[in-house]
Amino acid sequence: MADRYDALYRQSLEDREGFWRDAAKLIEWETPPDEVFGGATWFKDGWLNICHNALDRHVFAGRGDQPALIYDSPVTGAKRSYSYSELLDHVSRTAGMIAAAGVTAGDRVVIYMPMVPEAAFAMLACARIGAIHSVVFGGFAAKELAKRIDDAEPKLVIAASCGIEPGRIVEYKPLLDDALEQSRHKVDRCIILQRPEYRAALVEERDEDWHDAIAKAGRADCSTVSADHPLYILYTSGTTGIPKGVVRDTGGYAVALAWSMENIFGVTAGDTMWTASDVGWVVGHSYIVYGPLLAGATTVLYEGKPVGTPDAGAFWRVLREHDVDIFFTAPTAVRAIRKEDPELDLMGGRPNALKAVFLAGERADPGTLEWLSTKLELPVIDHWWQTETGWPAVATCFGLGRSETLFGSAGHPVPGYAFEVLDAKGKPLSAGEIGELVVKLPLPPGCLPTLWRNHDGFIRSYLSRHPGYYSAGDAGFIDDDGRIHIMSRIDDVINVAGHRLSTAGIEQIIGGHPAVAECAVVGAADALKGMLPVALFVRKANGDADDRTVAQEIVARVRSELGPVAAFRTAAAVEQLPKTRSGKILRSVIRDLADGREPKVPATIEAPTAVAMAKGALASVGYPPSPA
Ligand code: COA
Ligand code: AMP
Question: Do the Cβ atoms of 147 and 180 come closer than 8 Å?
């Protein structure tokens, strides 16, 4: 296939309306949009239902018997395949169940579920009736769930009794009960999927067993919604402990995803895509649930890990067994496999259908890229995007005929995105100069139009820093060939095993410990997870507990308030934190020390000895780690 990228990229910027008008034809509209872009909204006068496009449409087109969703769960031993007709049946009945719970278009439904097919049924079912889903990742603790419940104000919560992690059952239902105790917003109705591994106690009047509820309910048809109707709210970490409710509209998202499936991932009807992520993240929303189904492809929903379920051969087994064409995972998962099986002895035969591997969620280090591309002799494609964009913004467009594995760059801008790099004052920088990565407005379809009930926060967080641009929150540079290199975040967000966390949020939890006077949390480099949070804390003068006890309590506190997903295990006491004379904590100095770099200590430091103290405290907890 000839490389069509350049021409399409140019068209996407020079003839934006024409480009997206063509792309909109990938979607079946109840009322096709006349207006492509109206200053703030894409396809505003178009009416559609995304669930119809993901399911009914393919059944009407004769693909009813094709597998739509394959559930593969090494943690339970279950494997099930749902054809498009079967998935449609499950989703219509789930939609009937949700409607019977009193949910109507525009109402919110919080979904707190592990990687089970019912999570996808519930998402699609909400979309079917125009309800707005908000999926909360299972690795978050009750308090985080409560924050999301308070912000989204759902009419209904759908949860599973438990999730299954290697070696332990995570009881979700008690976490939900705790969250509902903590939340100000009162939820009258919960539907609980009782899993055989743990049957939860149900609260009378409020909770109903999924199977009982669905048995009583009829099927629900698609409700048509306007293109700007919110499909979902997905909370993500920002610079504070308060999660940001990213809103996704329906029409723009459907068009962008359908376009991306074909042109970025090269996946069309009948192909199989496996995205090894979780429905709780944007990657799961876009490329486990909506994207592959919009394309008429088969999606794999995997409840397991890259290693330990049962071993580092698990991914290859899934790729082989389900004839996966395109695989999407996080660099951390590849590093975990490489660590346990560097020669791929556990591969057990090549996954013959596989055409390319896509990596995202965190920086793909060249070593990992090189190892995987050499071992597989296939393109390994790094690509960059965020919860906010909803779909890739920087990539190598495999579907447009590009297949080069790039080392160090996440690729070229995806059609629709005009990137620039600015300095802190907003001055455009030249090729090769590192600065803030921004996208010239307007953002293409699919990207967030606002934050849930917080439009001012949306403007403040993303649009006001550099007027005329969307600020992505990442630093990077564009090289002479127009490739984009992502360096790091410019804010307090860190990335732990591809999971986005706010260090400020962790600091807030630690600061709540009665013995802690102040603290600083940084993301220290980690060979497996990319980054791990590490805390230095200063104790209050009058406390009784010793440093070690306080450190242990801090670790336990973060696990119970934020959740195990933070993988927070390291806190060290220090007499003083390095600060500027104006009192600003020098987190970059702490990060440099933790990573074993010579810190750039500003001249305006309050007490130079604080740097040595921080260094000593970090050394006492194993930072910087000695080279492997
Ligand atoms: N529900 C409840 N708990 C969860 C969970 C969930 N859905 N997901 C993770 N956790 C828990 C884990 O059990 C673990 O708890 P522990 O501290 O008791 O061991 C903790 O959260 C951290 O989990 P995880 O990040 O999965 O680390 P791990 O050490 O268990 O596994 C890897 C290491 C590399 C295998 C794992 O991090 C991994 O698969 N990473 C890839 C992640 C990914 O795909 N991200 C994509 C985002 S786009
Ligand atoms: P999330 O919103 O959870 O998907 O996290 C998005 C953030 O993850 C981005 O802003 C980046 O900081 C980081 N990220 C995602 N993909 C990449 C990538 N390919 N390279 C570097 N960083 C990435």
Answer: no
